[in-house]
Amino acid sequence: MKKLIAIISVLAAGFVGTAKADITMSAGQSLEVQSSGAVTNVSIGGSLGFAFSQDLGNGITVTMSGLTFDNDVSVVDNIVGTADTAVAQAASTTANVGTVIVPIAAGVAVNVHNVITTNVITASGAVTGGASNKGIDGDAFEQISFASANGTLTYGADVEVDYADTGVGDVTDSDLTGIGLASADSAIALGGTTGNGISYSTTMGGTALKIGYLFANGGGNDLFDASADANNSTVAISTAVPVGPLTASIGYTSAQAAAADTNTIGVSTSMSVGNGTLSASYVSVDAATDSTEMGFAYTAAMGSATLSVGYQQADTDGQDNTNMTTARISQPVGTGASVFAEMKNLSGGTGTTTAGETSSIVLGSAFTF
């Protein structure tokens, strides 16, 4: 109740103009239909987000990433959790110590959370289980940024430094487009690029510069042992430089791991062509298994609609090349509303170990508030 009162107080203060922080809210809703082979998938979901910022009055603005509720087509009810453990039992009995008896058949997998707690379970095999460890948006409030005229400094437990992933070629925007498709035999992997760390971005002249460092790249835990010998760090740097009609970006990431380090360099460029923009990229990964990726994309306006097409090819040592072709067209139908269509097609090295379709089409509508 105290937490609820505190939240209401902050929101009320925001409405009457007494809150120090600026609160930004955003929301959206989407309806999407995917056709892939003989399968038709429908996704209905929405999003709601909060962010907070405050001017310290000394030339520095503090921003905190806020709580976000978002649609995830791969998560039931959009709540990420770990499934309860179920163990097959041998001959089992129940002894009623309450008012309800729940029999357990021999050899049947039993989820302990489906057994009423007023019954004592006696079994020759142990019943295991536990809380589902569910949570909504575990990344909330894990970063804070300080922006000044000289640049922006960010630190937190969920910092991303995937600067070398400059690849273009996938122009899709919906998560539903890739659901159910075959796995790619060849694909790049940059190593640990998310975790506890710090990043800094600035602009010098016409050149943009980003530097990032992760103290531990195994994930964004709120608590970690900074002195542990097993910590794997990551260092990354990127720069974007205008070169005549082109914009060139170069990114480098070096991620440590117990098995082997991963060093990645990515280069991309873009230029105006006709009434659109043409982009190209190349990424090279030096790891236990080397891989490369090249991609091209073109985005152009067609009246009020936007059309994008892309192509990407990945090559991993010992595997067949995987080719991907994507396309997207989006048409606004009012303020904050649009309809769109996307397609994805895979060819070459796909699905040697995981079966699946190689192409899909998605039709959808989106609303932002």
Description:
- The chain is mostly beta strands.
- The chain has two domains: 2-81 and 134-368, Porin (Beta Barrel); 86-123, no CATH class.
- The protein contains one helix and 21 strands.
- Strands 1-2-3-9-10-11-12-13-14-15-16-17-18-19-20-21 form a 16-stranded antiparallel β-barrel.
- A hairpin with a 2-residue loop joins strand 13 and strand 14 (246-255).
- The radius of gyration is 25 Å and the shape is globular.
- Mean pLDDT is 80; it is low at 1-18, 81-102 and 107-135.
Summarize the structure.
The chain is mostly beta strands.
Helix-strand blueprint:
Layout: H1 2-16, E1 22-36, E2 39-55, E3 61-64, E4 68-69, E5 86-88, E6 92-96, E7 109-111, E8 119-123, E9 143-148, E10 151-160, E11 194-204, E12 207-216, E13 234-243, E14 246-255, E15 262-273, E16 276-286, E17 291-302, E18 305-316, E19 322-334, E20 337-348, E21 359-368
Antiparallel strand pairs: 1-2, 1-21, 2-3, 2-4, 3-9, 5-7, 6-8, 9-10, 10-11, 11-12, 12-13, 13-14, 14-15, 15-16, 16-17, 17-18, 18-19, 19-20, 20-21
